[in-house]
Amino acid sequence: MSLQAIRALAVGALACSLALPLAAAPNTGKISGVVVAPDGTPQMGATVVISSDQLFNASPLLLLTNDRGNFLTASLPAGFYSIKVTLAGFLPAIEQHIAVNGERTTLLEIVLGSVFSSFERLRRQPGQQVSNDDWTWVLRTSSSTRSVLQFQNGAIPVAGESPETVQTEAHHGLVEVTSGGDHPGSIADGSSAPGTAFVYDMGIGSKQQLLVAGEFSSEGDGVLPSTGFAGEWLPSGKEGVGPAMTFVIRESHLGPDGPVFRGFWTSYDNQFALGDGISVRYGTEYMLAGFEGTAKALRPHGEVAVQLGENWRLSGTVTADPWRDGAGSPDAMVSALDALDAFPTLMVRHSRPIFESDLHEEIALNRGLGRKASLSAAVFHDASSHTSVIGRRGASAPDFLQAYYSEAFAYDGGVSDSTGVRIAYQRKFTDTLGATIVYAYAGALAPDGSAANTALHLRDELATRYRDSLAGRVSATLPRFHTKLTTGYKWLSGAAVSQQDPYGQTLYQLDPYLSMELCQPLPAFFPGHMEVLANVGNLLGQGYVSVPTSQGSVVLVPSYRYFRGGLSVKF
Questions:
Q1: Predicted confidence (pLDDT) at residue 235 exceeds the cutoff of 80
Q2: b vs e for 225-249, b when ≥16 Cβ sit within 10 Å of the residue's Cβ?
Q3: Are 151 and 219 in contact (CB under 8 A)?
Q4: What pairs with residue 570 in β-bridges?
Q5: Does the predicted TM-score (pTM) go above 0.90?
Q6: Helix (H) / strand (E) containing 117
């Protein structure tokens, strides 16, 4: 064999050896870390046990740290993992829901604690810096941070090196004082009177979060208090990752001599992976309300998503509402505060309280268009036996659940059933400018044109009518003044008195007609961060439908006009 042929074979073998890891990269990743003592000293010989969180997990992986306290796994299937580290003389350390995804190495630092380090905290001098593991007061803060990093083709860090981290603005808390309600006519949510809200983060361990939120407001010179209390436990310390348990308790008065609403709502959500490209989310919620009777409901929900290639994703969903981390901010503090308004609309029918109900079934296909855009198409079905209708009335009737200090009322519009389609396009032009466009064709309740004067009930005049809708939403942060402005508009092709595609509206944060959100930072007069908040719905007062009934004329609308504003202070 010639020397030239030998060289050709060598080059071919080298190319094949390099191609193997590249072929395996898209659906695998690695975990690398360093184990240190509380004072930062690397620990050699620590036992590291890595277990998969997947349903059909393989045997745990056992590793030992080297003389610099480092450990590194071989290629692992994409998914979530739990890590347990033990070493003689130290307390065991557990890290849960560590994400591993394609072509990346997940990097983390694990600090082993001891009984003596716990006593050290008790004797800490005043003013001495507090470590991240201590419990802290939080009144609605910014996004929580984790010690897990990711890097591309990077080296394993050693003791003494400082890997690049993502810096975020740290705030210890936030107090929010607001007035106005964004759910007019729903007595199950917060009052429209001035109120104060807060969140308390107990910060259990280095990752887990136990958040407690509270809200208080009063109407009628303080004689009609409205209070709410919520709690949320996140074992992973991050919204939308791993299990989450939430509960809400609320009480409000309807007039000095009127009835009192008392409600309890709780939910449990979890997720896991099946193999490399299948993820499952599931959960259930239970609600109980006392208001001149008792209303209760148990609603399970679930979603299965399959990754079809690099940019395609197929999902099937059965639920009543989107997951809160997908419908709003992924910030755990904001999620805990938003839970105070988690109750569905309460209505009265035949002198008995009932919750609005909607079973949403959807199959959606999502296509990623580069790193900054996506296009999704969905076919869905909505079925409701008690459809919420919000309006304003000029006559009284037992089934009109009237808000005491406003003209808005909630009414059971009856049965609604429709099948629809939705196409949504989202694009982020820059870090400060993004847009969403959504087209939907679905049904909503609307007057059917029957003889109103002979109708026994308003719901007898309502029927499901199909409507086209086109909605757009633009979010921008203005330079220099750092003003955050979001404007949205949803056009409907005809009259509607209930929500058309309520799931899509919540998912993409789009209300019917013109809505605006404003967040304006103020100059800092003391250590902290102050913002003025404003939220306006149906600014132009569009879509109002007058319906004459045997009980008198009423005005119905799919989105009631409202204004909510206030001040937030982060510190």
A1: yes
A2: bbbbebbbbbbbbbbbbbbbbbbbe
A3: no
A4: 174, 529
A5: no
A6: helix 115-122
